Amino acid sequence: MAPPQGQMRPGRQLAVLGFIFVVLYLLVFFSGGASGGWKDRLEPRLGLDLVGGTRLTLEATNTVDGKPPTAANLEEARQIIENRVNAFGVAEAEVVTEGNRNIVISLPGQNRDLTDVGEAAELRFRKVLKATDGSGAAAAPAPTASATPAPSGSATPTPSGSATPKPSGSASPKVTSSPSAGGQGGMAPTPSASAAAPTPSATPSAAAPSPSASAEPVPQSVEQQRKAIEQKVGAAAWAAASGLQAPADLTADPSLADKLKPFGTLSPQEVAVLPVGMQFNVPMITCAQLDDRPAASIKDENQQAVACESGAKYLLDKAKVLGTDVKNASAQLDQTSSWVVSLNFTGKGQEKWTALTREAFTNEGQACDQTALGSDGKCRVAVVLDNEIVSSPEIQGVLTGDSQITGSFDNKSANALASQLRYGALPVTFEPQEQQNVTATLGDSHLKAGLLAAGIGMLLVIIYSFFYYRLLGSVIFLSLVLSALLVFGALVVLGRSIGFTLTLAGIAGMIVSLGVAADSFVIYFERLKDEIREGRSPRSAVPRAWVRARRTIISANAITLMSAVVLYIVSVGAVKGFAFALGLATVLDLVVVFLFRHPIMTMFARTRAFLSPRVSGLGRALPARSAEAGTGRNPRVKEA
């Protein structure tokens, strides 16, 4: 028999709630990122204060010209800092922006000093003195087309070579003088090392650094560090490495290879303090080790350096042009509708750039080795951002004006390269605000303490509910269990989809949400008592009490939700996690209120137990009405 018109069908609401649970937990077990056993799939993403690790908050102050950083500056800085953090080789490192000035770096599971990663990016222009592939053989460039300026003043792209960042389709950039600047000649790129040199064979001596090596403490002074490394690799290996004048020396004395094998086990931090000649000449020191060095290890522009490009090691001269000499770099469309990167320098920067291109073109000063020459027999200049060689084009003329980098660029790749060059000229300065180091043991204790606090809070609410409301306490208990299951499932899915991490502050937000949930129970149940005291039967009192309590419940939860949203917008760090967890728990509590609490109360109102004061928890409201009903008088009772 169908229920009367206007009467609710509690089965429908419960079915909707069941559907939500099914969809949510299907996502938990089968959504992207779900792997391993069922226990692994049920693990939410935990924050550093619960699993251990390092978190550093950096505040951007100003650009080098004294202006406040823009959103573009901050995003450029975030990308470079992320590259630096990834060089640590940690899994799931996270670098995010918060607000309009803060960058937050999180390294789960590891305790490291991250203060260096916030230093301004360093862009350097260095002449390439020598080149070798990873096996120690000379890196011989493949033939490239000569740099012939197009009528528009830019050279046509050549089919060989590659640049970093790599545009789609493997760009082959070259640099020419801008026609308006009256530049002379141009720069054509040397092909990437992957195309120019044979792929080195994998040998045990070129193995990646072992984890144990990177974990070893290293003394502070450079000399002490070198002494420690000498002891680690052995006196014979150190003497052999010190005597190497070129990587090719190994071919003359094959026994050297065995002696030099220990250098392949050095950590990037240890490699950074080795003499430059040793870094370049020892083939067992790989590009993986060199790329992962701290950025500050080649920061000094007055010292030679070693860096890699596509697996080839380059010995680089002192930096003659710095990033601060670059006035601007922008991606543009030239007259042939091809994307180019336009470079212009400051007044003194242009003088330095002209002098550097003249030195490379004429091979003056520190001479280039044959291995470092391009296809036209001219020296190359490497553009180095931190440890990374962005490009190493061959100088084919003296550039006295603005320059253009041309190649097979598209909009995205041209803007990426321009961003790297521009950021070297306009670095954002940062001040460390807070660094938090949490050990795994302490994180585990935090997690246990947080879960214990949440469990105690829920237990106290349930005990009070059964003591005061009896049968209605079971509604509170089931509602809290369902809310907890919804929140837990949402945390797992959000952790995979948007990277939300549960922190100790987030657990605190959920504990606070228990109070909000308890308030909605009290409002509903006390309104139900009022309706029964006014003479209505429990079955008719339930829907009327719901209508009268609903607005109050929604208003109370809406205020809590708005507070959480405002707190999330204006706060940073752990407070943000507290606000997000509080808002999430509040929203899901409203779902349970509408789809479970009211329907289950409608079903309870049709049972015999609901009419018993001892069982229902409705107190003296039911006896008063029953007594009046037995005498046939008006069942309405006045409140004492």
Your description of this structure?
It is built from 22 helices and 15 strands. By secondary structure, the chain is an alpha+beta fold. It has a 6-stranded antiparallel sheet with strand order 9-10-14-5-6-13. The protein has a 5-stranded antiparallel sheet with strand order 7-8-4-11-12. Helix 16 packs parallel to helix 18. Residues 1-6, 140-172, 179-218 and 624-640 have low confidence and may be disordered.
The overall pLDDT, averaged over residues, is 74
Q: Estimate the strand proportion.
A: 15-25%
Gap between N and C termini: 41 Å
- Large-scale geometry: elongated
Number of strands: 15
Structural category is: alpha+beta
Cα-based radius of gyration, to the nearest Å: 35 Å
As laid out across the biggest beta sheet, the strand order is: 9-10-14-5-6-13
- Estimate the helix proportion, in percent: 40-55%
Largest sheet, if any?
Answer: 6 strands, antiparallel
What's the total helix number?
22
Features:
single chain; 640 residues; alpha+beta; six-stranded antiparallel sheet; 22 helices; 15 strands; elongated; disordered N terminus
What secondary-structure arrangement, pairings included, does this model have?
Layout: H1 10-30, H2 38-41, H3 48-51, E1 53-63, H4 71-86, E2 94-98, E3 102-108, E4 123-132, E5 174-177, E6 186-189, H5 193-196, H6 211-215, H7 222-233, H8 235-243, H9 249-252, H10 255-260, H11 268-272, H12 276-281, H13 287-291, E7 305-309, E8 312-322, E9 326-333, E10 339-345, H14 347-362, E11 381-385, E12 388-391, E13 393-395, E14 403-409, H15 411-425, E15 428-438, H16 440-469, H17 471-497, H18 504-533, H19 538-570, H20 574-604, H21 613-616, H22 621-631
Antiparallel strand pairs: 1-3, 1-15, 2-3, 4-8, 4-11, 5-6, 5-14, 6-13, 7-8, 9-10, 10-14, 11-12
Helix pairs in contact: 1-17, 1-20, 16-17, 16-18, 17-20, 18-19, 18-20, 18-22, 19-20
